[in-house]
Design goal:
It is globular, with a radius of gyration of 16 Å. It has a seven-stranded antiparallel sheet with strand order 1-2-3-7-6-5-4. It is of the alpha+beta class. α6 packs across α7 and α7 packs antiparallel against α8. It is 34% helix and 28% strand.
Length: 209
C-alpha cells in the first residue's frame, strides 16, 4: 500500500510537471541504468489500477472536464501488437525482447475531454493516456525502457531535448499526424516515457483537430 501511494504521488507530480511546461522538462533518451532488484517483488504485486490517475487528479492538475474513457489490463500479445504498430517494428522481435525482459502485461488508462461538453459521447478534443509496464527485474525494465523509447521506425517523431530526468531514465517525444487511427482526426502528441525501478511508464498527452 505504501509503495502504491508513493508511486501514484510520483506519477501525479510528473503529470503536473509535464503539463506545466514540456519544453523545459523534455530530455533526449537517457541511458537506462538498472537499480537494485530488491524493489521488484513490490512492483510485481503492485495494484496497477490504484497507481494510475483519477478524474479528481486531473481536476487537481487544472484539467477540468476530463473523465475516464477506458481502463484495463493488457496481456503480452496485446502489447506486442500495439507496440509493433506504434513503433513500426517486427512483432516477433518485440515479443522476444519483452519475454526475455520478464514482462507479463501492462495496464492502461485514458482520460478524455469531450469536444462537446454537453455530450460525453462526442469525439475527444484532448486525451491523457497512462500505460504502466511492470517487469520482473530492474535489468528487464531497463531493456523494456530501451524498447519503448526507441522511435527509430517513426521518422515523424522528434525527441525534445532538455535537462530534467524523471525516475532512473526518461525521454520526451513530440509526434503529430494527419489521421489518428482511433479518432480519425489530425493529432499532436507529447509522450513522456520513464523508468523507475522495475516499472516503465508511458504518459501521452494528445490534442485532436
Amino acid at each position: 500500500r505504501l509503495m502504491q501511494f508513493a508511486f501514484r504521488s510520483f506519477l501525479f507530480a510528473v503529470v503536473i510537471a509535464v503539463l506545466g511546461g514540456p519544453p523545459t522538462l523534455a530530455q533526449e533518451a537517457t541511458p537506462a541504468t538498472p537499480v537494485a532488484s530488491r524493489d521488484c517483488a513490490d512492483a510485481a504485486s503492485l495494484d496497477l489500477p490504484a497507481v494510475t490517475l483519477t478524474t479528481a487528479d486531473m481536476t487537481a492538475a487544472n484539467l477540468e472536464g476530463f473523465g475516464i474513457s477506458s481502463a484495463g489490463p493488457y496481456g503480452v500479445e496485446d502489447d506486442v501488437a500495439y507496440l509493433a504498430e506504434s513503433l513500426r517494428r517486427d512483432a516477433d522481435e518485440i515479443r522476444a525482447i519483452l519475454m526475455d525482459a520478464g514482462f507479463s502485461g501492462s495496464y492502461f488508462s485514458t482520460q478524455s475531454l469531450p469536444s462537446d461538453a454537453a455530450n460525453r459521447a462526442s469525439l475527444p478534443s484532448r486525451e491523457v493516456q497512462i500505460g504502466v509496464y511492470p517487469f520482473a527485474t530492474a535489468q528487464g525494465a531497463a531493456e523494456g525502457y530501451g524498447l519503448l523509447s526507441d522511435e527509430s521506425g517513426m521518422p515523424e517523431a522528434e525527441d525534445v531535448e532538455g535537462t530534467v530526468t524523471f525516475g532512473d531514465a526518461a525521454e520526451l517525444t513530440r509526434n503529430s499526424g494527419d489521421n489518428d487511427p482511433a479518432i480519425g482526426q489530425p493529432f499532436r502528441e507529447l509522450e513522456l516515457e520513464f523508468l523507475r525501478g522495475c516499472l516503465v511508464v508511458s504518459l501521452s498527452l494528445f490534442a485532436y483537430g
